[in-house]
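ugh ok so i messed up the first submission bc i forgot one of the chains. this is the corrected input, ALL of the components this time, i swear. 1187 residues overall. if the numbers dont match what u have on ur side tell me asap before i send this to the collaborators (the ones from the other lab, u know who)
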Amino acid sequence: MESQRRQSVLKSAPLRQWGPCLALIVLCIGFSLAEPRFATTENLRTIAGRCAIPLILSVGMTFVVLQGSIDLSIEGCMALSSLTVAMLVLNSRTGFDLGLSGLVLAILPGMCIGLLNGIVMTKLRVPSFMTTLGTWSASLGLAMLLSGGQPPLIRDQTLRAFGLGRTGEIPNLTIVAILVLALGFVLQHYTRFGRYSMAIGGGEDLARQSGLPVDRYKVLAFAFSGFLAGLAGVLGSAQIGLGHVDIGLGQMFATVTAVVIGGTSLAGGRGGVLQSAVGTIMLAVLANGLIFVGVHPDVQKAVQGAIILSASLLATWHLRHRLRVIK
Amino acid sequence: MKHIITGAAAMATCALLIVSATTSAAPALCDKSEIRLVNSMREIAQPYHANLDKGGRMFAKWAGLEQRYVLQLNQGDSSKQVSLMKGLLSTNPKCTVFNVEPNADLVIKPMVDTANRTGAWIVSHWAHNEGLHPFDGNDQWIAHVAVNSLDAGVAISKQLVDAIGGKGGIVALQGRLDTDPARKRFAGLQQVLKSNPGVVLLDQQTANWDRTAAFPVMQTWLTKYGNQIKAVWAANDDMALGALEALRAAGLAGKISIVGVDGIPEALDAIAKGEMIATVSSDAYYQGSIGLAMGVCVLTGQVPLPKTWPKEKREFYLKLRVITKDNAAQYRKEPSPSDYAREWECSNLWNRSVGKAF
Amino acid sequence: MNETVLRVEGVGKRFTNVQAIDGVSLDIRAHEVVGLIGENGAGKSTLLKILAGIHRPDSGRIALRGRAIKLKSLADARNAGIAMVFQESSLLPNLSVAENILLGHEDDALRAGFYKWNALYGLAAAQLDKLDANIPPSVRTDTLSLAERQMVELAKALAIEERAQNEPVILLDEPTALLDTEQSDIVLTQIERLRTRACVMFVSHRLDEVLRVCDRIYVMANGRCIAQRERADCNATDLQQLMLGRQTHVEYGKRISTTSPTPLLSVRALCRADSYHAVSFDLHAGEVLGMAGAMCSGRESLCRALFGAEKPDSGEIVLDGHAIRLRHPADAVRLGIGYVPSDRRAEGIVSGFSVRENMTLTHLNELRRGPFIDLAREKELVGRWIERLRIKPSAPDTPAHHLSGGNQQKLVLAKWLIARTPKILILDRPLCGLDVGAKEEIIVLIRELAKTGIGILLIADTSDELIALSDNIIVMKDGIISGRFSAAAEKPSELQILERMV
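and heres the new structure output, hopefully the right one now
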């Protein structure tokens, strides 16, 4: 009976795991049926391009959420890095022309904000919600100062070409996103960072008691999230052509939504980068598909909201019947 | 000799009396050093708003009130715009002038009510709710500088239709749907489309005035409609530029006509390069400063109190300028105070009025 | 005589207002198994936790192989070669078994910081093999049953062997408490084998086990170490006497049956897929109905159905002549059915609350006066029950999680008895983890309750308890009732019950 019971837990798990994937496939099929041009290579390329930056952000957010925390500051990190890169490469405001090194340097502000988040959280014991809320405002403010009302326009043509171009059939930004996703996957399943993050999310007190350096991994997770947000800001600027304070507008909420509907629980300890990726792609498909199908802009937000709500319910339905805490 | 001096003195006195009779229409309400100038707008990241602020600062410096200039940003939150105003008016309300770019139409009434109650002064721009007027007993509401967004929309739509020869498919990027400029400009497009049946509106979406939002929408349209799209209509320059980047990614920059509104420097550059074909400017520098100028004129007594003004001086349309390749060059340079100083003079405040609004 | 590995001298520890340990001295020698016994609340767990590095002693010293040590954390202790197997799980639920066993020491299975999963599984399997445990190292720990987790805990402690330069010290805090006979046997065999390469301190309530594996036995009472015996020099009764300071009569003698003729509760053809099938029985007022069965016989599931915590697929439950449908435990409470769970931490008490708050939790309605709680009445009621059940510490505002296991059990019972007497009480292993003295008290209590007319459904730990307490016994096996015994007839023997169970 015991082995039977264990088997039944395993049996239900795959259904739960594959739920979001199934939902994604259903969405794709639905949109293709409604509008045949949806399923063309060109549109798939558009969707792939559209979810590049959200994918990068979702990888960073996943580790933070796996630990049971949250990072609200990614929009600020993006803005800061966006302004920085636009001022370090050839541009309309400053005399710098640092090219590739400018690009790399510009990711640092994002990572520094992430480090700050981690340190404040672990040393000063401020909950991640409050910490990142504060750094979100601060970094946005800093970005606004840098922008000064006259946003620097990027004139470095190699960077612009990279941001807007493709390699073969795939947009360059999407290739970067796939690389980041692969990195995230390896980190999650093959390093202590990933496994201990999962452990911390599943029971922080227990993890601490067992001697795991919990604080160290928390700082790491936030630094990683800030780093990826900085990267996303830089890439966004390459695409749009200037340092823009609003480069990340709306991304925080979208990223958290993607992570949740993909199956990574906000309580921590459950989920992963691939799951978050499914959620991200789902949102991109949704946004793209609604335009294709011709849903009226006034109604779009409502339809999006309804679909996201249903997806979240599906992702957490099985937890309704959890009666006892298994100890 | 004695009569000459007496005569001259008499004439001088007469002249003085005549001059003072005509000019000193009201006593000064505030000491100039007490006047506070406030620009209240959404944010400052976009060039349009940045130029509003610049215009305000230019005026403040010119008027010697540089230290008394305050900028209030509400980040798209209407209630915040109102509460920021109330907060500032806890001190010295009677000598404060507000020049307001409303976040949404419905924000004007609470701000006017606040001004009425505290004795502060307010000049608003763009549009407000129907039935609400400065001359209906709102004595603290100096003036409303309306922009005929319908005309603006019509103007750029006409440019667009001409550019594609009156035939073909177009797509439209709308602004934030709960604002009057967004609605009226789009109405202008629809008006022009009605008289040009050869032009088809393939699709319209809102990108909320933001270029980062416009980019993916344009990309999706390119995939959906392919080469059916001959032109892009955008309710503001920022969105137009976002669409331009999407075109650039597809190698179509300059091949598809784009129009926008605002006249920001980037758009002017794009027009000069041929990547955009037209925009309309209400002159952000002017808008950001004229309200403050009016306020200073009222507070220093150089003009009579607004409640004595005729209706067309309380509510008027601002002259719009259509900018195309032909005249882009003259608008591209950075403005200096001397460009506007004449219009800030109290006798020239209505220089750019084209008549009563609404 | 072997050399002393671990020496404890005059160690004391105080928690807020309770002196848990007071001047304890003992030692553990190489290649021996030392038993530590005592009543609930005697301080055994606390002492172990100090040795394992979780708590720091207020006074005294600890010396490992002659050198004084100060242990600041669990990791510290493990590095020094002292490992503890916990009473409550220290395993991280969403990691795999292998990761838990090798937690913090995955180095051998890492290459340039990256996990070599096969290597990890191999290392873990090696530890599990020491215990003959049939657990795949790759499954998630929260899919395992309680017993399996205990095995993994043991394997985790044993993993220290490969790393310690010297032989490790292994501390076992009631490792067999949640295991059935077969599994306990395996664990005990392992403990005996450990002797050759480690020294062990073994805490248990089951005196027969202690006498089986230990070379020496320390007895603790009231935070002090009061006696030491060699295995050869004592027997169970001696030890009990020492623990309680008096003779005990755990007399499971004949009792006068107090059952009434009409059934209070009738269960007819109750079924639930994968748990139980076609279960029918009657429970009378004043009757104690014992339920015997092995681990997966369906007993627990059945009891939860009777309490409304699980819904059966088909069948009928009739209470006082009316068929009832229990959708939710609140329904059962309203109808007068109380349930005392086996896992008191998870299901019995709210650990953030005080004793008083826990006690009155389910019956706040009865203590109401208008919209407020009648504090005076609550105080009097709580005080009365603390006294009656001898709950220690007796301050009503003591946080519930500070109570020892046995006292927590008493608290859970009090919860159901307070304010209004239930009609039916379902007791799921009420004597689990209690020492002899506490057991006695609870048994007396159960008998008293039956006398007052409550119908009691009892799942007991051991067959002899069952036989002694019950009027009738049902034996379940694989989900169906495989045997019924009536006490009115001849009392069944343990063997007879065992036969039906397996």
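quick check: Chain B has two domains: 32-147+283-319+333-356, 150-281. that seems consistent at least. Chain B has a mean pLDDT of 87.
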